[in-house]
Amino acid sequence: MDKRLRMALLYDLYGDLLTDKQRDYVALYYLEDLSLSEIGERQGVTPQAAKDMLHRVEVILERFEAKLLLVENYMRQQKARQALNQALWQMETSAQGLTPAIDEVKRIIDELLTT
């Protein structure tokens, strides 16, 4: 997973644990795609100070993930969902008459993976 996507996921999951200022920097850089110079202008700091703040916040977000593993669990659930859907698709294509049972299994899987 590329860094931008990872940081966006970390921000989505742990952003409420950051200070307002930290959230602002992450949102400006990773969500609004502003440059360090543009962030510096908005925040009244140098581009280097903006870079330093972003680095500190990235470290904080990675520490949250190391302890709580929310992104890891989310990615594991997505892989499991894809594998299950593939297996169910194969069952549907080879088993006439099982469609209602397969639909119920899909519903249960979706319910389990979204809770």
Helices and strands in order:
Blueprint (H helix, E strand, L loop, with lengths): L2 H12 L5 H12 L4 H8 L3 H22 L1 H25 L4 H16 L1
Helix pairs in contact: 1-2, 1-4, 2-4, 3-4, 5-6
N- and C-termini, Cα separation: 24 Å
Total domains = 2
**CATH class category name of the largest domain:** Mainly Alpha
Low-confidence stretches: none
Radius of gyration, in Å, reads 20 Å
Q: What kind of sheet is the major sheet?
A: none
CATH fold type of the largest domain:
Arc Repressor Mutant, subunit A
Q: What average pLDDT do the residues reach?
A: 89
Residue fraction in strands: under 5%
Query: What is the structural class?
Result: mainly alpha
Q: What's the CATH H-level homologous superfamily of the largest domain? A: Winged helix-like DNA-binding domain superfamily/Winged helix DNA-binding domain
In the CATH classification, which architecture of the largest domain applies? Orthogonal Bundle
Run of helices and strands: HHHHHH
State the share of residues found in helices, binned by percent: over 70%
Shape: elongated
Number of H- or I-type helical stretches: 6
Number of strands: 0
